[in-house]
Amino acid sequence: MTVDTAELARRLIDGDRRTLARSITLVESTRADRRAEAAALLDAVLPATGGSVRVGISGTPGAGKSTFVDELGSRLTATGHRVAVLAVDPSSRRSGGSIMGDKTRMERLARDPAAFIRPSPSGGTLGGVARRTREAAFLCEAAGFDVVLIETVGVGQSETVVADMVDCFVLLAAPGGGDELQGIKRGIMELADVIVVNKADGDLLPAAQRAVADHRHAAHLMRPKHPGWTVPVLAVSALEGTGIDEVWTEVERFEAHLRDGGGLDRLRSEQAVAWMWAEMQERLLDAFRRDERVAKRLADAEAAVRAGRLSPTTAAHELLAAHGLADRDED
Ligand SMILES: Nc1nc2c(ncn2[C@@H]2O[C@H](COP(=O)(O)OP(=O)(O)O)[C@@H](O)[C@H]2O)c(=O)[nH]1
Ligand SMILES: [Mg+2]
Hints:
By secondary structure, the chain is of the alpha/beta class. The chain is 53% helix and 11% strand. It folds into 2 domains: 1-48, Single alpha-helices involved in coiled-coils or other helix-helix interfaces, CATH 1.20.5; 50-260, P-loop containing nucleotide triphosphate hydrolases (Rossmann fold), CATH 3.40.50.300. Residues 65-66, 99, 102, 105 line the site of magnesium ion (MG).
């Protein structure tokens, strides 16, 4: 570790915001020398991590995530918490920083000295964006933030990677025209530890209440993700600020439930090992793609597989062989 890294780590643990912002920029860098520095920094602050409540918040665009986070975050800082808000949005390059480009929806939190908001890292694969967000979460913890909220759009695979980096996964939904909730897929339901039906106000109130009743019923029928935990379903209005405290009570109750049986440590250990594997997968695949011997053949192989001239198994075999990986016996 260089003197600089040690100094950076010290200032980070002191809670210096500018150091935190700089450190996150460091872990977001793709340059090899910066990556090495980032890894040294993460190692240096590792003992100072693990002290926060990590909460994922997912929902379709327009469900009210930003409004909800602004309201929840402001209530938490008002009661003495320090709140970091991060995002996983693999589409953020294309849409020009979508998820929290709209910091306007988090107006209060953006001005709150006890809050820290960081938009999704842009560009790269979902795995890359996830790694950088996860590392940013660790840095926030080291800097003394005791609540880390990670927002993600409920499309594609991003909610799975967020579920794999938080303690508690909150699904935020809004009623559609009828009784249905907008765009909630079953697979996402199954990730949820707490379900929140937003926009329970005005004309949407009756539909929201029916949606809550339906989802309570469904939640009771679902196979529990954590033994002994029935997923609570709550109605809130992020706009009017109703039901928000109750959501936090459920999040804390869930954390306590996990903690009691040693489940929180177990969950976090498993996540750490899964992270190691994800990192290796990402790096191996990257090294494979960069290999000139592979790169030369890749386009042809893909075309041949697409046209049905070559079987996927044989194509993979040939590319791996070009990379120097011979077949092993399988069991
Ligand atoms: N009626 C109502 N509208 C809301 C509520 N929360 C958010 N909205 C509105 O829904 C729209 C999308 O909100 P936003 O927070 O940007 O959603 P996001 O895309 O999930 O982050 C905005 O027009 C909000 O004002 C709520 O509790 N009730
Ligand atoms: Mg938003």
